[in-house]
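SAMPLE LOG
Freezer: B-3
Tube label: C17
Construct: single chain, 140 aa
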Amino acid sequence: MLSNPLDRNQNDDPRLLRQLLGRAHDLASRHALHSVVVGMAGFEGDPEYPEIVDFVVSALRVDDAVFRMTRERTLLLLADVDASRAREIINRVIDDYRESFPSTADPAITIGYYEVAPGSDDVTVKHVLPTVFADLPRAH
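STRUCTURE (predicted):
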């Protein structure tokens, strides 16, 4: 298990990606709880993207987790929510970001969702990543 999911010294360790997905599978299989893996992606070199991610991460609950794959790709695990609720949460936080840091353009990010429902067996890197990063942003 992830002992402290939001610890910045650990959340980008590649070995923890499988643990994050394992936690989602465990919540679904052992506790019959839905979880959602959220993939966030920004343009390469976008200086605003890390700030957006930090803002989103600061709004997460203790039970949620973050995994920073690269500077432009991040996975979030929202525990005990379904896909509809996960979208509401992320949209609300992104709207809060827009209000807190108004600019002339909307944040240039894509967001993908992978729901892990009770009975889900395909909670693996090869199933989750292509789904959450299906619509990656294109270069300017």
